[in-house]
Design a protein that fits this description.
alpha+beta; eight-stranded antiparallel barrel; 1 helix; 10 strands
């Protein structure tokens, strides 16, 4: 008789333990999902921040090799979820220093440094990984206006980057970019990507801007 009661007791204890584990799992899952839902609902429709980063740029013809530069400015993100879920539009106003190292068309070692005011506008998608991290992917056009710069040569004969005697580079540029990155805690954003210029900068040799960018942005709004 005692054995029967012991078996019944053991069986009931096992069932109770299994029920408690299942209930705990359901509660934990519901809590985690609730937190994710709250984050999704609390994503602000507008973010404003500051951005800075590094460039590795070059020109599309042989002899215009990669050159280190930098970028900085303001950036803003707008929620576009009303159009397509989890999408956004990001626009920036940047000061961009790009250029090249090489021998260009002169056969002499030279370095070109150009300053641009650039406005990229990109459409992106955000994939929420967890409470803190969101993966980002975006693409879109940019327009840029050259404000100044120089071409320096080892033998001297330096000239202005825009309007110089040898290249006479156009100040206006237009192109397209592809960027990926991540947003942490809704404030810290790291992006890397490529920008491809469409404009022939000297209207002769089909020279176009190319730029690889790494940037960090902090959103304070």
């Amino acid at each position: 008789m005692h054995r029967i009661f012991d078996k019944i007791k053991t069986y009931c204890m096992k069932k109770l333990l299994i029920s408690l584990v299942c209930a705990l799992t359901l509660v934990t899952g519901a809590t985690a999902q609730s937190k994710l839902d709250k984050i999704k609902e609390s994503l602000p429709p507008f973010k404003l921040g500051a951005q800075a980063g590094f460039n590795v740029s070059w020109l599309s013809q042989s002899g215009f090799n990669s050159h280190a530069g930098f970028n900085f400015g303001a950036t803003a993100m707008f929620d576009a979820g009303d159009l397509i879920k989890d999408t956004y539009v990001r626009g920036s106003f940047l000061v961009n220093r790009i250029g090249y190292d090489g021998h260009g068309f002169t056969g002499v070692k030279e370095t070109g440094n150009a300053w641009y005011l650039e406005i990229p506008v990109r459409y992106g998608y955000g994939y929420l990984l967890n409470n803190d991290w969101t993966l980002l992917g975006e693409t879109g056009p940019y327009i840029a206006i050259g404000t100044g710069g120089t071409v320096k040569r080892d033998i001297g004969l330096d000239e202005d980057y825009f309007g110089g005697d040898v290249y006479d580079f156009d100040r206006f540029d237009f192109g397209w970019g592809f960027h990926v990155g991540a947003l942490y805690d809704q404030h810290h954003q790291v992006m890397l990507g490529w920008d491809f210029g469409f404009v022939d900068l000297n209207n002769k040799q089909n020279i176009k801007n190319r730029n690889f960018m790494i940037s960090y942005a902090y959103y304070f709004l």
